[in-house]
Amino acid sequence: MTAAPTPRVARFAELSADQLRGGLREALALYVTAMGYPRGTAEQRAPMWLAHMLRAGWRCVAAYDDDGAMAGIAYGYRGAPGQWWHEQVRRGVTERRGPEVAEAWMADYFELTELHVRPDTQGRGTGAELVRLLLSGATNRNVLLSTPEGPSRAWRLYRRLGFDDVLREYQFAGDPRPFGVLGRPLPLD
């Protein structure tokens, strides 16, 4: 008996907010699978993803396999004062590294909010291509993101793409896990 062929990414596409809303169930299922979260997480995250689509500078790209199923997704937007993530990160960077460092990173940045690749298509450059496509349209000075601490494919990807430490071992309100906040100047080379 031969093993089923591993799915391959056949195409990438930029998605409008309407297109992502239409495929939100599939995108959130991919997110839950990629992150190893419990099933109910998708219902909790849906309102947040919908609200993010309304933010200034929002962009989204997706990868699709040969069968047309979503194999990866990335989105983000212009970070700004008053946004939950912005306020959390600004506070942490200011406390640990000073207000000048916080201002340098956060005065003009694109927040890479979500990046997820379906596990059966990981390790083939899909995540890197999603980041490149997403950031190719960003006009901000910097890009920032957060990811759980610990060795992972995500960390290796971000390091390969030139992301540096902005804030390490940080705990966001409501999440017991430590996170790293990483950043780099734009454009992405």
What does this structure look like?
This protein has 189 residues and is an alpha+beta fold. The protein is built from seven helices and seven strands. The chain has helices spanning 17-22, 24-35, 41-52, 84-97, 99-106, 126-136, 153-160, and strands at 9-14, 59-65, 70-78, 109-117, 142-148, 164-170, 179-185. A seven-stranded mixed sheet has the order 1-2-3-4-5-7-6, with helices on both faces. Strand 4 (109-117), helix 6 (126-136) and strand 5 form a beta-alpha-beta unit. Helix 2 (24-35) packs across helix 3. The N and C termini lie far apart (44 Å).
What are its keywords?
globular; 7 helices; 189 residues; alpha+beta; seven-stranded mixed beta sheet
Determine the structural class based on helices, strands and strand pairing.
Answer: alpha+beta
Strand line-up in the sheet with most strands: 1-2-3-4-5-7-6
Gyration radius, in Å: 16 Å
* Rounded mean pLDDT score: 94
Which of globular, elongated, flat, extended, rod-shaped describes the shape?
Answer: globular
Largest sheet: 7 strands, mixed
- Note the beta-strand portion: 25-35%
Report the end-to-end length measured between terminal Cα atoms.
Answer: 44 Å
Unreliably modeled segments: none
Q: What helical percentage do the residues reach?
A: 25-40%
What is the total tally of β strands?
7
Topology order in helix (H) and strand (E) letters = EHHHEEHHEHEHEE
Tally of DSSP helical segments: 7
